Amino acid sequence: MSDFSRFVSQHKAALIVSAVVGVTTVAGTVYYLNQQKQLPPTPPPSSKKSKNKRKKQNKKKKAEAKATLYPVDPQTGLPKITDEIVNTLSDEEKSSWALSLKESGNEYFKKKDFETAIAYYTNALQCRIDPVFYANRSACYAALDKDDKVVEDTTEALKINPSYNKCLLRRAHAYENMEKYPDAMFDLTALTIHGGMSDHSNEVMLERVLKKHSLRIDQEEYSNLPKELPSASSLSSFFGAFAPPDIDLDESKYEESTGARFLVQGLNKVDLDTPEAYDEADVLFNQAISKFESDVDADKKMAALAYEYKGAFDFLKTDSENGVIALNKSLELSPRPRAHVILGLIRADKSDAKGANEEFEAAVKLNDSDPDIYYHFGQMFYLVGDLASAQSNFEKAKKLNPNNVYAYIQLACIAYRQGDAAACDELFKEAKLKFPTSPEVPNYYGEILFDRQNFQGAERQFDTAARLQQALPTFNIGCLPLINKSAIYQREGNVDKCVETLEAACELDSKSDVARSTLGQIYLQLQKVDEAIKLFEEACKLSRSVEERTQCISLMEASKMQLKIREDPILSQKVEEILRQAGVVPQA
Ligand SMILES: *[C@@H]1O[C@H](CO)[C@@H](O)[C@H](O)[C@H]1NC(C)=O
Ligand SMILES: *[C@@H]1O[C@H](CO)[C@@H](O)[C@H](O)[C@H]1NC(C)=O
Ligand SMILES: *[C@@H]1O[C@H](CO)[C@@H](O)[C@H](O)[C@H]1NC(C)=O
Ligand SMILES: *[C@@H]1O[C@H](CO)[C@@H](O)[C@H](O)[C@H]1NC(C)=O
Predict the structure, then answer these.
(1) Are the beta carbons of 195 and 42 closer than 8 angstroms?
(2) Topology annotation, domain 408-486
(3) What is the dihedral of CA 143, 145, 148, 153, to 10 degrees?
(4) Backbone angles phi, psi at 400, to 5 degrees
(5) Which residues line ligand 3 (CB under 6 A)?
(6) Which pLDDT tens digit goes with each residue over 230-270?
């Protein structure tokens, strides 16, 4: 799946146009995209031929031009051309005046006297309407940073010659400067289509514009959404990797409506590991804190635990600012290693490796046999690719908390990344024996088998994972086995099964952005563009980081562009032609 998304993001320009017509399967699209490079070059736009002819004419007329065909203002030395004068000319004369004026415009352009060049081109246009004159004048406006004038002139030129590439590109640059990104994207896509889709030279610009556009949409529409908890599967893997709290979890032992009671209720909800229970826990921890705040005699250790969980929830909601406040408070009341660990994660999240290290050291200082420290320390090493340090930390975590299934899985993954497939198999086998009902073990084993190109084996593991998950009352990994299984169907080109599986994944986990953006991409291939856009929109709202969100927004905006191209009669016909030539769609 990740290969596929990389593929998609690398071929966005092609993707934008690929679903416009005809392509009905994923395999078909991939085929079509691969075909692109072999397409015969499209004939150059017709304007070129006439340009050459005109050039010859120009040479002939040049001598006459020097003697000025047209009246000149003696004071300014500029042509003095009015509509009245032009009306008296024959068509022949209009043409030769126009060409002569244009020639002079070109000379002033070369001398970088853009204002004068503009005057000449304007006069040329008075004598004869020609897209080239508009194009030339737009080049002057571009040099003068008059973007709105650039758009005006290129638009006039494109009305006459819709495949005038120079104008499309120039207008795209102007639109980009004016921050009218969708308009710029449309022109760049049109450019790609007119170039027979074999020209990839504008993809860099298209990517850049799409990125700017996505970041702006993110800023305007998504960055201020209320901070919400992530999918229960993320919460499950986060809390599942921690040792259980060392307090009595029997709610009846605590007086009703006290901070301690709310806290223990919250902890028990976390233990239930369902989406609803996590939402309830979130409320309960806040209730616990407001009780602890007003109770000076409250048990400091219990209060610290409440703040610690609130800090963890804030972190998981990507509200790290409030997370730090709560965790600081927790440490102030009664220091526990885990508060430092979460602070370390928050700092690592902000790419503050040194700060993260300090927090982990502080945690070790408090209790060097706390398993929570080593698991997360190991993960950080794993993420930066220091496998040896990751391994020793996971070993320690596994020894100190033998119930942490993730430590086993990570160790097996490390063995695989170190190139020892046999050790990896062995470690997964050990994990399976120790955690026979865990859907995590077969799911991650399946991912490794997939990577090893053992697709049958992977499919079996994903099936087992999905079955185990279904039998559990807890959420664990939720729809992950289904998402992963869809990758197998996709590989096989079994689009129906792929869609079916991903639709089930979306239903199973109402907060899975991955399920939604993956299904959206499949819909896009199936030309269900409206449905795709809807899913990308949902995925945007659900995704956790700016990077994930802008990726979703990019897909969404690229899809909207597809609709726009589809509505353009000239472009959609051109795409159809190209696809037919490439043999992707049957000859009409
Ligand atoms: C004017 O247009 C012609 C034909 O497209 C081109 O060759 C020439 O470079 C243009 N001049 C300027 C200043 O853009
Ligand atoms: C949290 O505590 C650290 C260390 O004492 C301190 O540097 C930081 O400013 C505190 N942050 C907040 C938001 O209280
Ligand atoms: C350190 O953590 C371990 C494991 O949670 C625990 O058994 C031990 O009592 C803790 N030691 C101290 C000094 O808190
Ligand atoms: C399985 O799903 C995870 C999470 O969405 C993803 O990172 C991974 O690439 C998937 N693996 C395969 C083989 O699709």
Answers:
(1) yes
(2) 1.25.40
(3) 0
(4) -80, -30
(5) 243, 367, 369-370
(6) 999 999 999 998 988 889 999 999 999 999 999 999 999 99
**Shortest-distance atom of ligand 2 to CA 328:** 1
* Ligand 4 neighbours by CB, cut-off 6 Å: 1-2, 447, 450, 480, 483-484, 487, 514
Atom of ligand 2 nearest to the CA of 324: 13
Nearest CA to ligand 3 atom 13: 367
Does 139 sit in the ligand 1 pocket, CB within 6 Å?
yes
Lowest mean pLDDT of 4-18, 173-187, 256-270, 422-436, name the range.
Answer: 4-18
- Give the number of whichever ligand sits closest to the CA of residue 465: 4
How many angstroms separate the first and last alpha carbons of the chain?
34
Q: State pLDDT tens for residues 96-149.
A: 999 999 999 999 999 999 999 999 999 999 999 999 999 999 999 999 999 999
For the CA of 400, the nearest atom of ligand 3: 4
Q: Is the CB of 324 under 6 A from ligand 2?
A: yes
Closest Cα to atom 2, ligand 3: which residue?
Answer: 370
Q: Is 106 in the pocket of ligand 1 (CB under 6 A)?
A: yes
- Following CA atoms 370, 374, 380, 381 in sequence, which dihedral angle do they give, to the nearest 10 degrees? 150
| Cβ atoms < 10 Å from Cβ of 298 | 18
Apex CA 310: angle with CA 308 and CA 311, to 5°?
65
The pTM (predicted TM-score) of the whole model is: 0.80
Q: Please tell me if the CB atom of residue 132 comes closer than 6 angstroms to any atom of ligand 1.
A: yes
Q: Is the CB of 358 under 6 A from ligand 2?
A: no
Q: How far apart are CA 374 and CA 115, in angstroms?
A: 69
CATH number at 62-221: 1.25.40.10
The CA R_g of the chain, rounded to the nearest whole Å, is 33
Contact in structure between 306 and 333 (CB atoms under 8 Å):
no
| Nearest alpha carbon, ligand 4 atom 4 | 480
Residue 483's closest CA among 465, 468, 238? 465
3-state secondary structure of 269: helix
Cite the residue boundaries of each domain of the chain with CATH code 1.25.40.10. 62-221, 408-486
